[in-house]
Structure formats: structure tokens, C-alpha cells
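Q: I have two molecules that I believe assemble together. Could you output C-alpha cells for the complex as a whole instead of separate predictions?
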Amino acid sequence: MTEFLQAVVDHAFLRYALVAGILSAIACGVMGSYVAARRITYIAGGIAHSVLAGLGVARYLQVTAGWEWFAPLYGAVIAAVVSALIIGIVSLRWRESEDTAISAIWAIGMAIGVLFIWRTPGYSENLMSYLFGNILMVTPANLWVSAGLDAVVVVLGLALYEPLLAICFDEEFARLRGVNVDALYLLLLCLIALTVVLLVMVVGLVMVIALLTLPVAVAGRFSRSLWQMMFGGAVIAAIVTTVGLAVSYSADMPAGATIIVLTGAVYLIAAIGTGIAARLRSRQRTSEGEGAAGEEAA
Amino acid sequence: MSGIPAVELRNVDFSYNGLLVLRDVTFSIPEGDFAGIVGPNGGGKTTLLKLMLGLLKPDHGTVRVLGQKPERVVRRIGYVPQNFQYPTRFPMTVRDVVLLGGLGREGKADVDSLLQTVGLDGLGSRRFDALSGGQQQRALMARALATSPDILMLDEPTAGLDAAGEREIFNLLQELNERITVVLVTHDLGFVSDAVRSVLCVNTEVRRHPTSELGEITGELLETMYGTGMRMVRHDQCWQRGEGCD
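A: Yes, here they are, computed for all two components at once.
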């Protein structure tokens, strides 16, 4: 760890990676909680995989059309938001077709991305970093975009806490209270799309779902309210991202995969630990009940 | 009492995907009434309730609640849904659930007082998913009461509860009915004859009876009123429909 801390001091790219990890962790805690509460992990997965289309097209235009300004990150944002809106509209209008729409977006998005990357002249080294992330490649320009996305996601996610909580908990009741459920749901999906883009930089689009859901799932076991879950999820995500980065640096392993394995381990430990604790509490209650009954009988 | 009916439907038709669910429904529920909506599965009970809530729009006809379109008086209607399925492991306290009832209204609801009304004093900080089924129903009733509604509409509020839980809910509803109109979809026919003041029988068509009349109505008369295939039999404390009725 000391070696890693020294490296952070010495190398700017590690500092950028750390900041990118923490920025994505904050968004991950806020939006991941809504994803878990509303049970739309599959939608988030579809959006995440469709991002490859945006990345591929943007990279292709950069190389072939000379659009240097059109960074893959911008393509990712556009693809994610468009996918979110398509899935959202299908889900609201034709709920029975929602699964089909998500599957189509998921697969077609990836296919478009692969085709454009294939057609892009030169070495296609980006494909692997898009799929599995490469947090060490984050540039200062990427960081500014990430900070902007993070601000939008966190500010809107927290400012609309009450109505978003209402539609996650009971959509029908929210509608009865005058909440514009459809508009808010589409906005929620767009915010999730932006969060997905942030996470793609860290762990790649294949593993986004793990980082979006597992830290908040751990936090949810110890929370009484959604905002506690958000806070706890962000803290856990920041810790696993930072520790994962340190481990991957020290052991010379891919950062994205290391972060996800660590996240999975934390989830498993929390699930097993809380399961054992619940069983012990139940056993204790039973023995207390039996003791009280015995005393009464005596 | 304003004299305006709490709920009034006139010549309402409603269909799902071309299938007629309710036909030419006309009735009114007076202010202060305790109305039970009964009928076979698929007969249109929940649809009728959702029309009254403004969640569904009729194909034809008019729906008025407190003399206005339902969507204009949503805050004067309390609603407790059927078989409420909330996401498991959703971290939310009972207090949070009740506060959502006052969403969009200025000022926070008096959660402690609402919880006291429904018999959940001191449970505000407990997680909603840690409550029993009956307690969850009562928490949802507290949420429905958060805007101090004039009408409380409930869809099968006792589904899945044991007899003691059912009795507690019904006692609470009778207490609430001293202040507000209560409209209840239920399968509990015993309670219908025991507690409610009027019954809406729904099976595509809707008929409303004061329960005081039921004792004088014979099975033959009911069959004449409802047409063939709408057999109704009265028992000691409840009345039941014939085949296909649960």
C-alpha cells in the first residue's frame, strides 16, 4: 500500500485514476440505489452494453472523418441516453415488450460498436478497454467531463429524492399524488445512463452492473432509508475502487477486473455475515421465549 | 354534509383491449357512506375503483368524485392498494412511507398522529419490511390518510391477513367512517353484511343496495334483478354469489 501511495504522489495518471474512481463511486451510490429500489438492473445492463455503439461510432468518426473533438466519451453519452429513452418509452407504452426492447438494445448496441471498431483503421486497442475498462488511461479532459456528468447525476438524483423515491416505492400511488411518473421515469433512466458512462471508464461496460448494484446491495443490508443506502453505497464503491486500484497496481493486474472481484468479495462477506447474524438473533429470541415460557410454567 | 355525492358514475363503459369490463354503470355513493364493492374475480371491481381514482379513463360516461373529475381531487382521496408489492430489501422506514402520502403538499404530515390513528404508535423508525402483513396494511392506511382525505378507497385491504388482522383493519375502518366516506373492494362477504352500509355488486354491470335491504331480499328476487346466472344466496351473517363467486 505504501508503494501505491508513493506511486500516486509520483504519477499523475494514478491521481487521475483515483479521482475518476471516486467520482464514479459517488454517482454509483446515488443512482445504484434507485436501480436497486426500482429493480431495473436489467435495464441498466442493456444501457451499459449499448454504450459500445457510441464509443465505436465516435472513435470511427475521429479517425476517418477527422472529428478529433468527438471523443468516444461523448459518443458513449449519446448512445446511453438514446438507449435509455428508447427502453423507457417502450417500458411505459408497451410494458409487455420491455424485455424484448432491452435485449435488442443490448445486443444491437454491442454489434454496432464491434462493427465500427472493426472498420476503424489502425490498431483497435480501445475495444478491450471499452469492454473491461482502463481507469489508468483517464485523461484530465476525461476527468472534467466525468466531473460534469457526476454533478448532473448527483444534484438531480438528490434534488428529486422524494418523487424518485415515490415512483420506486409505489408508482401508482405517486401518480395519484400528482407526480409526473412517466417524465420522472425517463429522467431516472437518463441519469442511470450517465452513471453507466462514468462507470464504463472505470470497469468497462461488461462489468458496470456489478459496480452499480453490489455496493448498494451491501449498504442496503445496514440501511434504514434510501439516502443511507446511497451514502453507504458511495462509500463502499469508493473504498473498493481505491483498494482495487492499489491491488491491481501492486500485483500488475487489470484494474477493472480487480475492482469487480473485490466488490464481489465484499458483497459475499456481507451476505454471509448478515445471514449468520440474523440466524443467531433468531436463535437467541427463540431461546429467550422458551426461557420465559419455562419460568411461567414454574 | 354538502349534499354532493362522494362518488357518482353515470353511464360508464370501460373496456380493456376491446373486452368490455364494465357496461352502462350508473350509481352514486353518498357522503359519509361505507360502501363495499363485491363481485367475482374479473368482474371489474378493481377497474371500478381505479375509475373512481382517476387512474383509468372511461370509454363513455362520466365519473365524479366530490362533484369533480377524480384527477382534480386526488389529494382529497386516500388510497390503499391491493397486494402491495414493494421491492424486497427496500430500505425505508414506516415514517418515510407515511410521509410519501403527503407528497407535493406543503408542510409535512403529522406522522406520529397518523401512526397513532392506525395503531402503530412508536413504530415510525422501524423498517417497513420488518412489519407484519397487518401492520404494513395499517402503515399504508396511514399513508393514505396523510392528506386528511374526504374519501378513503381500499382494494382488498385484508387480503393475506389472518382473522384477527382482518378484524383489526375492519374496526379501524369503522372508526374512520365516523369522519370520512369509505369505499372498499373486498372478498370478505361476512364483513360486507356485518359492517358496510351499502353494497355495490359488480359483474360487468353494477348494482347498489343499502345493506339494510338485504334482509328483505330473497334469492329469487336478486336473481330477477341481476338476470340469469347471477344467483345470490343469503346466509346468517353473509351473503354469497353462486358459481364462479369466491
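A: One point stands out. The two ends of chain A are 61 Å apart (CA to CA).
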